[in-house]
Design goal:
Blueprint (H helix, E strand, L loop, with lengths): L7 H22 L6 H11 L3 E5 L2 H11 L7 E5 L4 H10 L2 E5 L21 E5 L10 H11 L2 E5 L7 E2 L2 E2 L6 E5 L13 E5 L2 H10 L4 E3 L2 E2 L10 H11 L2 H19 L12 E2 L5 E4 L3 H10 L29 H6 L3 E4 L7 H14 L2
Parallel strand pairs: 2-3, 2-4, 4-5, 5-8
Antiparallel strand pairs: 1-9, 6-7, 6-12, 8-9, 10-11, 13-14
């Protein structure tokens, strides 16, 4: 490939000495389980009182929801167009996901459609800050307050993003992060975290992830094993120091893409007073499959995020939704394509991508 979708090798080379020193420190200390230092650093970075490291982003969602009291008989509102982990976590608790269509410009959950989905069983809203752009949190929080609903943010794609001066992950009762390797802040394996200002919730999540125990062999309830290991925490601590610089480059790449492609396809738009950190750069075209084949021939990696809206996927067929219930999410599903986006893209890489899209899009 001439242009990689995500280039973790290039990223590693740029921070190799720091990463190797950090991993070496863990090997010397044998502090292999838990990473309290990274938890403290990340909490300070996003402006949260507590951060609990867990095994992965899906576990973060599941544990935050479970410890917030969601369970059988409850309904939880979330976005129709997101990765299945968001809905899986709701299902894991025994609650039922209730899907809401997305805004056609931001691709985030449309606040104007949320209230119509609320019933007497609704207990929470899970907005997803999709592709790196925060959801429109002011109206979401107003709706939640009006109806006495929990808000748990899915921040798997929004590390360092801001909404009206506040970091994504500081609006709801809890915020769930994935540190999968390809994320803006990625580990060298699976990793995740829950951030919250609620000390009691943080304690329960930590206890749940350590077999229902915060004292060895004293198990207050049946838990699971889901912790952030020391090596992953050390890697994340190194990368956290570079995150804002990498995000700045992503934003600059997006600006160049927008300028070069605005006349040939639908390009992403950033909301007012929002820092969109472009985990993904997603365009819309009318010949998606043809364009992807063309880009591959040109040595340009690309992807689809996401090809099927969750409510019409086989996993949730039993809920009885139809494509016409989600005209935006289902209407764009066969048009969206994600272009290469990472902090190590050069201007030459960007120019190659722009020319390849311009010659293949319609």
């Amino acid at each position: 490939m001439k242009v990689q979708f995500v280039d973790l090798k290039a990223q590693y080379q740029s921070i190799k000495d720091e990463v190797n020193e950090a991993i070496g420190g863990i090997l010397q200390s044998c502090a292999f389980v838990n990473s309290r230092s990274f938890e403290a650093e990340f909490a300070q970075y996003i402006g949260s009182r507590h951060c609990v490291g867990v095994g992965n982003g899906t576990a973060a969602l599941m544990m935050a929801m479970k410890c917030s009291g969601l369970g059988p008989g409850d309904e939880v509102i979330t976005a129709a167009n997101t990765f299945i982990a968001t809905a899986e976590a709701i299902s894991f608790t025994g609650a039922t996901p209730v899907f809401v269509d997305c805004d056609p410009v931001s691709y985030n959950i449309d606040p104007a459609r949320i209230e119509a989905a609320i019933t007497d069983k609704t207990k929470a809203i899970v907005p997803v800050h999709l592709y790196g752009q925060p959801a429109d949190m002011d109206p979401i929080m107003e709706i939640a307050k009006k109806h006495d609903l929990l808000v748990i943010e899915d921040c798997a794609q929004s590390h360092g993003a801001t909404y009206r001066g506040k970091k994504a992950g500081t609006f709801g009762k809890a915020a769930c992060f994935s540190f999968y390797p390809g994320k803006n802040l990625g580990a060298y394996g699976d990793a995740g975290a829950v951030a919250t200002d609620d000390e009691a919730l943080a304690t329960e999540i930590r206890k749940l992830g350590d077999h229902g125990s915060n004292v060895k062999y004293q198990h207050d309830f049946v838990g699971i094993n889901s912790r952030l290991d020391g090596i992953q925490g050390a890697v994340l601590s190194v990368k956290l120091r570079h995150l804002d610089k990498w995000s700045d480059r992503r934003i600059e790449v997006a600006r160049m893409y927008n300028e070069g492609l605005k006349d040939v396809c639908v390009v992403p738009q950033t909301g007012t007073d929002v820092r969109h950190v472009f985990h993904l750069y997603v365009i819309q075209v009318n010949n998606r499959d043809e364009l992807m084949a063309h880009l591959t021939e040109q040595g340009i990696a690309c992807g689809i995020h996401y090809p099927v809206a969750l409510p019409v996927s086989p996993a949730y067929a039993d809920l009885g939704y139809h494509a016409e219930d989600f005209p935006v999410a289902c209407g764009i599903a066969d048009k969206i394509v994600s272009l290469p986006m990472h902090g190590d893209l050069t201007d030459e890489d960007v120019a190659l991508v722009i020319e390849a899209v311009k010659s293949g899009a319609r």
